[in-house]
Amino acid sequence: MTTREFGDIELRRVREHVWEIPQEGEMNAPARILASEALLEQIGQDKTLEQLRNATHLPGITKHAICMPDGHQGYGFPVGGVGATDTTDGCISPGAVGYDINCGVRMMTTNLTYEDLQGKEEELVEALFEAIPSGLGGGGVVKGDAETIDDILARGMQWALDEGYATEDDLAHCEDEGFRDDAHPEYVSQKAKDRGRNQIGSLGSGNHFLEVQRVTDIYRDDVAESFGLEADQIVVLIHCGSRGLGHQTCTDYLRRIEKEHNDLLDELPDKELAAAPAGSKLAEEYYGAMCAAINFAWVNRQLIMHRTREVFADVFDRDWRDMEMRLLYDVAHNIAKKEVHDVDGKERELYVHRKGATRAFPAGRPELPPAYADVGQPVIIPGSMGAGSYVLRGGEKSLDLTFGSTAHGAGRLMSRTKAKQEYWGETVQDELREQEKIYVKAQSGATVAEEAPGVYKDVDEVVRVSDELGIGDKVARTFPVCNIKG
Amino acid sequence: MGFTLREHTADVAVEADGPSLGAVFAAVADGLAAAMCDDIPETGERFSLSVRAESREAALFDYLDQLIYERDVRGVLPVAHEATVQQDGDEWVVDASARGVPFADVEARDVKAVTYSEMRLDPTNDGWESYVVFDV
Q1: DSSP state of A363
Q2: Whether residue B54 has pLDDT greater than 90
Q3: Could you tell me the residue ranges of all domains in chain B?
Q4: Which of B12, B36, B73 sits opposite A417 (nearest CB)?
Q5: Can A353 be counted among the known catalytic residues?
């Protein structure tokens, strides 16, 4: 048997790209890491494995706690972590969802080609940067009063449709049609609503961005055709989440769990894994509040997409509909959802926690919209601003291996403090423009340094592992043209 | 007394010390400001805040959470922190103030939230030391 040791953790190789930390002591299940040798070597360098092992202590965790190929150290639950817990005798963990509830990505396709865009890159990046709120204190596309906030929390993209910021077709191409009907705005605190009020339709900063990209490679022609993707096409990728409203919601419930379920908290090895017992009043309230924050995040990305359409209409001097600017799909990667999965031949309802992991359902799952019911859902994997991004489709093996999940990005390799010592924002921008014809505009040069391409893992390797495991199949690759960030 | 930003793969950590609980709380808050901004201007008015919690660690968590809340709703970057921490029965009370630099005056980045991950708040021979990870 092949084994690897990282500190006090011994991993056993199950098969290619699958490693296991056997169940022992207080663990409620084994843990599995889905990685190549090269990715495992990187994953083993920080506290990812320790955090994954800690996650197996969650009550009711089913089969395995799982680390995706892009996993890295987070707080409590690792980023790239998937954990499914029973909805009757398990728990729901705000720490296993993360602060940025429904942080996610969406991709919008166009009928423009790279040739149509060449010569307009600078004008486009400046116009997008001007029109789309970003950074700290950048405001939002919409300034909401109390009624507006509650409406967004309750109805998600249906609110955007009624207000003229979305089309029926947008809703039909969003996870859950952009609306969680389990949302309960009354369980979101006033503090959270106060923070969200000025941020409706804003990118924020950190690793969030909007990127105009060109499709460079098609790997599966039939699936790409179903997704409306073809070589040389221009697409837009938007990555952001639920802003201060979601961050505050997670904080509020972590503190409530600490006060109301301290007995459970004492059994967990890390306070950030804070969990409410399934069936408790607090579990129901957190689920209702989290679903409301999910709705907020979908509206956030929708408003940014709406602004993007307006900018394209100005820059290319034609109606955005004539450019066929359609939402390909919007996927969440910080979320917990009640889903039914087959476990040892029995159907069970589970809270599937995905923290830095993307749902990757194959064809046939009832949750998929009609457009993708026969082909599998699109999965969008952003790379760094100097590398390619990928579009995958949910893989046949994902339900068995990962509760229908795959990676969410390249995964960070270098700390932000070290990145600022290694890189200088303006130099990174100049090199990307001169060497790669990528136009980057940011509120802060430090953000560019922190997000330099060299701080991320090799997205090609992450996607290769996903594809070879059959959890997310490669469909297309894209390359950046314009990037704006906070 | 002061703070140091420590490496963390995805987020940012602050290590701080001070001669009193209030001093180390304020030093962590200064570290939070440094994580958001490299060059802090001298502009802005001071404002006060107060939190009450069931333990010292919870008081530190709530204090930092309240600063992030004040940042978003006031539209300012809280800097130049001062704090006192006192026990009141079973609770700990933080009375604090900060200077709020208007966002228009500063180039700053977002920090999403304070976390309990790896949090330390320990007495030393000279006072107190703390370690806090923030979600970026």
Answers
A1: T
A2: yes
A3: 2-135
A4: B12
A5: no
Query: How close is the nearest chain B Cα to the Cα of A408, in Å?
Result: 14
Give the number of beta-carbon pairs within 8 Å between A and B: 116
Place B91 in a pLDDT band, splitting at 50, 70 and 90: very high
Domain total of chain A: 1
Residue of B nearest to A445 (CA): B107
Q: Provide the shortest C-alpha distance from residue A416 to chain B (in Å).
A: 7
For the whole model, what pTM was predicted? 0.97
Q: Which residues of A touch B58 (CB under 8 A)?
A: 255, 258
CATH, residue A242: 3.90.1860.10
How high is the mean pLDDT of chain A?
96
Q: Is residue A42 in some structural domain?
A: yes
Q: What is the ipTM of this complex?
A: 0.96
Q: What is the pLDDT of residue A264?
A: 87
Q: Which of B110, B118, B134 to mutate to test the interface with A (most CBs of A within 10 A)?
A: B110
A93 lies in some domain: no
Map tokens 């809280």 to a residue. Answer: B78
Average pLDDT of the residues of chain B: 96
Q: How many Å apart are CA A111 and CA A215, to the nearest integer?
A: 12
Task: Quickly name the fold that domain B2-135 has.
Answer: Archease, Possible Chaperone; Chain: A; domain 1 (3.55.10)
Q: What is the pLDDT of residue A341?
A: 98
> Distance between CA A77 and CA A69 in Å, rounded?
15
Q: Which residues of chain A have pLDDT under 50?
A: none
A94 within domain boundaries: no
The DSSP bridge partners found for residue B45 are: B100
Partners of residue A247 in chain B, C-beta under 8 Å: 68, 112-113, 135
In a domain, A95, yes or no: no
CB B107 to CB A443 under 8 A?
Answer: yes
pLDDT of residue B10 exceeding 80: no
Residue A133 or B11, more confident: A133
Measure the N-to-C terminal CA separation of chain A; round to a whole number of Å: 48
Identify which of A72, A248, A450 has the shortest CB distance to residue B69.
Answer: A248
Domain limits at A229?
Answer: 3-87+102-485
| Interface contact A74-B113, CB threshold 8 A | no
Residue B1 has what pLDDT? 78
Query: Tell me, what's the pLDDT at A385?
Result: 87
A176-182: long-range contacts, CB 8 A cutoff, minimum separation 24:
A176/A367, A177/A369, A178/A295, A178/A298, A178/A299, A178/A302, A178/A330, A179/A155, A179/A295, A179/A298, A180/A156, A180/A291, A180/A292, A180/A294, A180/A295, A181/A291, A182/A287, A182/A288, A182/A291, A182/A338
Residues of A377-411 as b/e, b for ≥16 C-beta within 10 angstroms?
Answer: bbbbbbbbbbbbbbbbbbbebbbebbbbbbbbbbb
Contact B72 A99 (CB under 8 A): no
Contact (CB<8Å) A75/B119: no
Hey, are the CB atoms on A446 and B12 less than 8 Å from each other? Answer: no
Bridge partners of A395? Answer: none
φ/ψ bin of A164: left (φ > 0), alpha (ψ from -120 to 50), beta (otherwise): left
Mean pLDDT of B120-124: 97
pLDDT at A444 (0 to 100):
83
Both tokens assigned to A36:
């190549």
